[in-house]
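Researcher: Go.
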Amino acid sequence: MTHRTHRIIGCGPENPLRVVVVGAGSMGRQWLTTVTASPETELVGIVDLDLAAARRAAADLGRPGLPVGSDAVALAAGNGAQAVVNVTVPEAHHPVTTAALFAGLPVLGEKPIADTLARALSLAAAAEVSGELFMVSQSRRWNPQLFALRGMLRELGAIGTLTTEFFKAPRFGGFREEMAFPLLVDMAIHAFDAARFLLGADPVAAYCQAYNPSWSWYEGDAAASAVFEMAGRAHYAYNGSWCSPGAETSWNGTWRASGEKGSALWDGDNEPVLVADVQPAELPRSPYSDIAGALQVFVESLRTGGVPMGEVHENAMSLAMVEAAVLSARTGRRVLVDDVLDQAYAAALRDENRPDVRAALAGWPSVRDALVP
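Model: Structure:
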């Protein structure tokens, strides 16, 4: 396992962290509102390749004079920013985050880590070399009800099966409707990451079928069924569709855990239910929630030096689940996650342009050892 430490920054309510947000699209605007509302952060700039969009976002915040720019590092250097929130499209995650880390700027990034697992591994090594924190805002990890569900699973003894059903019908327009596997690549990672959290286990193998219903408004496969074999013998099954109108599930999905002592159920929006002949202990609750919680954890980690959930190494295995599912859907065969990790590692070594990052990657004993605490 790699040694994960990062630079500590004195920040908090008494000394708010000065933040630049990169990305002024719809999700970027949510982050702009969140950063502005937090007593622990101060928004000092907006970055977007479309400067007009950045100016509109600043004006909509009531801060028309807020500095804007098209380069995160340059804008940060000009206004004393201490950290970056990266809300760019996935293809830009790697270059924007790499540049920020090596400019001495810790990064809180939207999921996924990068557009490929290979580039995610590069970013994990870049965080090691730079000594800066890179945390992924896997925001659903902080859901208090998910924490309670995890506590229930611990009452059930061995878990045989964990399932998620996810059925929604959003009409996004734009890049999602042009992706080859929009559900798997853009959405399912939330559920995959939550499954790892609930089971306290990482994936071993995956089998997935993806398809596109005849009425779908997506170009790629907007529906999928995947089964993951997890370490410890539990199986995780995901069944979902992004073109399923009527009786839609929560955005968190609908969950069921089947264990040796009973079951636990969660509809994704209300309190989970334990159906078992056991007396549950007091269930742990997350003091955080959604992206505001992720931002709070990021600031706390910078202040204390602690390693947060969502730190790049810890989060990479969730992206590995996505790539394993996509590879299985493409090939029609069961896929070993270690094979996916090894292929991504070889690509990361081949494509890495920074000698120091390539050397860090080459020093990993294995990918799984580097990622799993």
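Model: The CA atoms of residues 23 and 87 lie 5 Å apart.
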